[in-house]
Amino acid sequence: MQNGMHTDRERCVRAVQSKDARFDGWFFTAVLTTRIYCRPSCPVVPPKPENMTFYPSAAACQQAGFRACKRCRPDTSPGSPEWNQRADLVARAMRLIADGVVDREGVPGLAARLGYSTRQIERQLLAELGAGPLSLARAQRAQTARLLIETTPLPMAEIAFAAGFSSIRTFNDTVREVFALSPSELRARLPRNTAPSATPGTLVLRLPFRAPLNPDNLFGHLAATAVPGVEEWRDGAYRRTLRLPYGHGVASLAPEPDHIACRLTLSDLRDLTVAISRCRRMLDLDADPVAVDDQLRTDPVLAPLVDKAPGRRVPRTVDEAEFAVRAVLGQQVSTAAARTHAARLVTAHGDPVDDPEGGLTHLFPTPDALAALDPETLAMPRTRRTTFTTLVTQLASGAIHLGPESDWPETRARLLALPGFGPWTVDVIAMRALGDPDAFLPTDLGIRRAAKELGLPSTPGALTTRAAAWRPWRAYAVQYLWATDSHPINFLPV
User: Fold this and answer.
1) Residues involved in catalysis
2) Are 29 and 8 in contact (CB under 8 A)?
3) CA distance 277 to 100
């Protein structure tokens, strides 16, 4: 699927007529006769093709005067896969908008983070998405408001400000305009047996994804590498603490056949949008598994692996700087040893938090906190100690910034310039922290072992040449190759 799919009218009409859920989030169908917009898989009878028009974003539909369908709820579609597979300005801007930057810092803050003028940002987003950053953020606020209305007993005034609206009037007007219902009418439509969560600050919701999704390596990896105090696997769910703009939170995420069951406990509800965005990003829920697997199946060696367990995702992170630190701690040591190193740092330098369910005790330490520690207290070889202290100093000073807006090639170059940073460390950070879907680990021991067993070239250079056919999805090929091993990262915990 190519960028700008909404312009391919014939293809969009076919997707709508077949109610193909794979295209949810790629484009939106606006119906000229009813002034309603839907996701492609809307269960109602499809409109006549001459009454359909297509938009690249919900915000563009809203800006054109269409309101959201009450049946298919297009605002709850998975996000477009475009923003996770591209590294250009628009994709980086969309990742930041999803992370709530426009609500917190305005369009000037968004532009400053990207290093462009506000005019350039607005022009490019408008050209590609049919809406500027304010409209895109507004659509996101409307979605957050709906979620709070339907999942909490909070008064509407509290919901308005938690969702990021500047006034109750704006909140009321936006909800009515987008959903053709007032906030109180939205809540009244809930089934009688759907009682909102009564636990203060706790929300229960469903995170949608495009099928198929194989949870084994995704949750297996997160659970097997979990840092005590920060992460745990409990009762079929991965749980972890979250450091958020307005406070902290605890996320509980469990795989279900058609969604991820998500429970969020937040110290400040204004962090809801950011928490959801980061959980989705960590679980790679906006991926397009059909496109990925179709490409990898073209290799006869990978095809049986894909057919056996399709829909593997790349396990990512909720905190890019944290992952970079943990990647250094994991250099040339076992998974268990890396967890032990990280747990010591968490106990000594992490911020304590209250977990209503017990088990989680801390937020992972900030780069500032780690930059202030005494290097002699680190139980690791001197060369790795230097690598660690250099990284945290660079992160704390802002000389290296890891975030949704990171420019992948530039960040790779900066990391490679640090002492002790070789291709493996940089590529694992690119894959799991920056989200580069084409990051590849030809020097990884598990990859080389899998390649040898499968009859693929096992030397890094030859394997990289062979892997050119897997682009732009080499990070997903890594998951399929790793899965040939019996390591705990490949299995859901019992």
Assistant:
1) 38, 444
2) no
3) 9
The residue with tokens 């990512």 is 316
| Cβ neighbour number for residue 421 with a 10 Å cutoff | 21
Distance, CA of 123 to CA of 119 (rounded, Å): 6
pTM: 0.90
Q: How does pLDDT run along the chain (494 residues), one tens digit per residue?
A: 344 678 889 999 999 999 988 889 889 999 999 999 999 999 999 999 999 999 999 999 999 999 999 999 898 788 888 787 788 899 999 999 999 999 999 999 999 999 999 999 999 999 988 999 999 999 999 999 998 898 888 899 999 998 999 899 999 999 999 999 999 999 998 776 655 555 667 888 889 999 999 999 999 999 999 999 999 999 999 999 999 999 999 999 999 999 999 999 999 999 999 999 999 999 999 999 999 999 999 999 999 999 999 999 999 999 999 999 999 999 988 889 999 999 999 999 999 999 988 899 999 999 999 999 998 888 889 999 999 999 999 999 999 999 988 999 999 999 999 999 999 999 999 999 999 999 999 999 999 999 999 999 989 999 999 999 999 999 999 999 999 999 999 999 88
The per-type count for the chain, helices as H runs and strands as E runs, is 23, 9
Q: What is the DSSP letter of 43?
A: S
- Which spans in 372-459 are helix H? 382-397, 408-416, 423-429, 445-454
Nearest-angstrom CA–CA distance, 184 and 73: 17
Token couple for 330:
């994991």
Burial classification of residue 250, based on how many CB atoms lie within 10 Å of its CB (0-12 exposed, 13-18 middle, 19 or more buried): buried
- Give dist(CA 414, CA 394) in Å, integer: 10
Report which secondary-structure segment, H or E, holds 113: helix 101-114
3-state secondary structure 245-266: CCCEEEEEEEECCCCEEEEEEE
Residue found under tokens 């809930």: 190
